[in-house]
Design brief:
GMP Synthetase, Chain A, domain 3, 4-stranded antiparallel beta sheet, 12 helices, extended
């Protein structure tokens, strides 16, 4: 589902009856519902005059409501910009905005913040929708201009300012790009002010969105805000195969979800012995093959054999301590986990209802008798 105010899809979402000017904040990233909005403040306390405004995708900023306008969450407002004005949706207001300011901008000065000009009227909303509808075409033209110059960059998204006098181009590149000539060409072609912002591959996936290999929406486009570095050691600790096609996400980097359960695996591996130690027996040396962290099982095998011996981490520690003392067990069979075979008797067909031919006998008995058979039997008797 997408609408013009939060993505470049431009299609009307199910349940969205505003067709692009969604004011319900139902599809926002990390949306916040203020349950205390209708409760009056203590006597003498003034309402917090700073609000958080959300623009396209996840771009947000704080603005001061100097005119004391009656603004609620979900209202479309016109705010002051660097030159001109911009249009956005109020995402947080009231005391929750105070908490967001403390969390995101600790050095925020309300008196120096940009102001809210007015609540958007129909003319502002029409201009806003017109700007959103032209963003995709503008992005394709900008990609063509960058390709003609030969710049190694990818323009992934474009965001128009509410008054259509400025456009922000988001791009990804492996290295540093000299786009001064590109800005001159775009300014002459589009007749607007140009701003270029370089983003990473993860930020690009968060802006564009998509479906992951798990079948759910991408974490970076729904709730994940901090992008921590992911190493291949996270996959090794979780006993995953180092296959780049399976470990990489849509951004081309390692999946962020590799870090989600890493702490649990690291905590569980503390009780396991080192995997580079070989178990010495009279039969030979056994080397480590794989580990099941949550079951507490380690598999070992002898050189030149395909049979695996499952051992508990406690048994492995006992063998290692015995090897240090110069004692070698005869074989690993005496230490391996004995699997209990459960014999399933299955379903007992007592009344014979599962038989395919259970109706044949009854049909034969109730079938019509052949009259010629009776005549033939009478003739034989005579």
């Amino acid at each position: 589902m997408s609408c013009k105010s939060c993505s470049n899809g431009g299609k009307k979402a199910k349940g969205c009856r505003t067709n692009g000017t969604c004011s319900t904040s139902g599809c926002n990233k990390l949306e916040v519902y203020d349950w205390l909005a209708h409760i009056e403040l203590p006597g003498g306390q003034q309402a917090y005059d700073v609000i958080e405004v959300r623009f396209k995708n996840s771009r947000k900023d704080f603005f001061r409501n100097a005119q004391k306008l009656q603004i609620q969450v979900g209202d479309i407002v016109v705010v002051d910009a660097a030159s001109g004005f911009d249009v956005g949706i109020v995402s947080v207001a009231g005391e929750l905005a105070r908490i967001q300011v403390r969390k995101k901008k600790k050095d925020f000065k309300p008196l120096e913040a940009r102001k809210v000009i007015r609540i958007a009227n129909q003319k502002d909303i029409d201009l806003w929708i017109k700007a959103r509808s032209k963003e995709k075409e503008l992005m394709y033209k900008a990609r063509t201009l960058a390709l003609n110059i030969g710049l190694e960059m990818k323009i992934s998204d474009v965001e128009y300012q509410g008054d259509m006098t400025k456009a922000i181009f988001y791009y990804t590149a492996d290295g540093r790009v000299d786009f001064r000539q590109l800005i001159k060409n775009m300014a002459g072609e589009f007749r607007i002010r140009i701003e270029m912002k370089q983003i990473g591959s993860r930020q690009e996936s968060a802006r564009l969105g998509g479906i992951g290999s798990c079948g759910r929406e991408l974490c970076c486009s729904t709730w994940l805000t901090d992008f921590r570095s992911v190493n291949t050691s996270a996959a090794r600790y979780q006993q995953l195969s180092l296959n780049p096609q399976k470990l990489a996400g849509q951004c081309g980097k390692l999946k962020c979800c590799l870090n989600f359960e890493l702490d649990t695996y690291l905590e569980g591996l503390k009780s396991f012995p080192r995997t580079d130690l070989r178990l010495k027996t009279k039969k030979g040396e056994a080397y480590h093959v794989k580990t099941d962290v949550f079951k507490g099982t380690m598999w070992y095998a002898f050189r030149g054999e395909s049979q695996l011996y499952p051992l508990t981490c406690v048994r492995v520690k006992e063998i290692i301590e015995a090897n240090k003392k110069g004692k070698n067990p005869d074989d690993l069979k005496d230490y391996q986990i004995k699997e209990t075979v459960v014999i399933d008797d299955g379903y007992l067909n007592v009344v014979g209802q599962d038989s395919v031919s259970r109706f044949e006998k009854s049909l034969k008995k109730k079938g019509r008798k052949n009259p010629l058979r009776k005549i033939r039997s009478n003739k034989k008797k005579e």
